[in-house]
Amino acid sequence: MTTLDSEHRHLVTAGPDDGGRLDAFLARRIKALSRSRLKALITGGTVSADGETIVDPSRAVKPGTAYAVTVPPAAPAEPQGQDIPLNVLFEDEDLIVVHKPAGLVVHPAPGNPEGTLVNALIHHCGASLSGIGGVRRPGIVHRLDKDTSGVMVAAKTDRAHDGLVAQFQARTVERAYGALVWGVPQPLSGRMTGNIGRSPRNRKKMAVLAHGGRAAATNYKVIRAFGSAAAELQCRLESGRTHQIRVHLAHSGHPVIGDPVYGGRGRAQARLGGVAYQALHAYLLGFIHPVSGEKLHFKAAFPPYFNALLKKLEEI
Fold first, then answer.
1. What span, in angstroms and rounded, lies between the C-alpha atoms of 268 and 194?
2. 3-class DSSP state for residue 249?
3. Does 292 fall in a domain?
4. Engineering a disulfide at 235: which of 22, 104, 154, 177 sits with its beta carbon 3.0 to 4.6 angstroms away?
5. pLDDT of 4 higher than 50
6. CA 76 to CA 131: how far, in whole Å?
7. φ, ψ (nearest 5 deg) of residue 288
8. How far apart are CA 275 and CA 265, in angstroms?
């Protein structure tokens, strides 16, 4: 039996068929908490049985024993929430899916300590954030570059965070991007591979490396060509390395239009009359809801700057 009292203590009694490790047993019974979170609670001294504090997650479960799990209040989020508009595509008690605009940084960093997607999510979600690892914050399980727009999912609970992380690690999440690139890749569809790591010539950039780095693969298909000058591509990820699509396309000789780091074609780009953001948009995200098991697919239409670029390319 499992109950929850007014002090946020879960009271769990082991049945005659229960056994095995304590952390695994509690994870099966207390669906709101992940096994990693329960392990941390045990080692932190907030789990007891018959008045005895248990600090060993591998302690064997004894049938008939009543276990008390005290969950401390989630610590305040760092950074603080900020009232930044969000385009929410889906939200429930476990996760939130948003359409991130180009120009918005996902996570605070020394160069961007505030005004990020995380600040916006903390403000928007408020008390519905139950605490990832004991901190009232959203669980960021994947990222988009600052100047890449598109669909993103974030966890609001431990159980959702663990489930989403597992899917990204298993590469079962479906992700598709739209990209406008210089030139027309040949063949018109294919698979780009090459280990990606820090560039030995510029540590602020990523590069395809002959030695070292991490394996990466990007599948692409030309949707339409604008003469021989440029093309619209669909790109699908098999892996999720930093700047992966941008690096693979640039390495192939077809950089993303407007890419400030891996781009080029200065004269050609000038003909477009200026490019607000790099032309890369994460338009599709599909995954299994980590709690309900439902298959979810979300699409985000190309933003205005992307459509404006398409119109200009049609006129070249």
1. 28
2. helix
3. no
4. 177
5. no
6. 9
7. -95, 130
8. 12
Give the chain's domain count.
3
- Give the integer Cα–Cα distance in Å for 287 and 167: 8
Helix (H, G, I), strand (E, B) or coil at 273: coil
Backbone phi, psi, residue 193, to 5°: -130, 170
Q: Is the pLDDT of residue 300 over 90?
A: yes
State the pTM of this model: 0.77
pLDDT of residue 171: 92
- For the chain, the average pLDDT equals 89
Spatial neighbors of 231 by CB under 8 A, at least 6 apart, are: 180, 181, 183, 184, 185, 222, 223, 224, 225, 254
Is residue 205 domain-shared with residue 304, that is, in the same domain? yes
User: Is 259 designated active site?
Assistant: no
Secondary structure (3-state) at 184: coil
Could you give the C-alpha distances from 225 to 79, 205, 233, 313, in angstroms and in order? 44, 28, 9, 9
Same domain, 272 and 179: yes
Q: What confidence category does residue 134 fall into, taking pLDDT thresholds of 50, 70 and 90?
A: low
Could you tell me the CATH number of the domain that includes residue 23? 3.10.290.10
| Distances in whole angstroms, Cα of residue 164 to Cα of each of 29, 53, 102, 209, 274 | 20, 32, 24, 29, 38
Measured CA to CA, the distance from residue 178 to residue 227 in angstroms comes to 18
Whether residues 271 and 306 fall in one domain: yes
List the catalytic residue out of 23, 94, 145, 158: 145
Q: Give Cα separations from 104 to 49, 208, 285, 289, 311 (angstroms).
A: 48, 26, 19, 26, 24
Name residue 295's beta-bridge partners.
Answer: 288
Domain that holds residue 140: 88-169
Q: Tell me how many degrees the CA angle 34-54-77 measures, rounded to the nearest 5.
A: 40
Same domain flag for 10 and 93: no
The per-residue pLDDT for range 224-275, each reduced to its tens digit, is 999 999 999 999 999 989 999 999 999 999 999 999 999 876 666 777 777 8
Same domain, 142 and 186: no
Same domain, 99 and 21: no
Dihedral (Cα; 113, 118, 124, 127), 10-degree rounding: -100
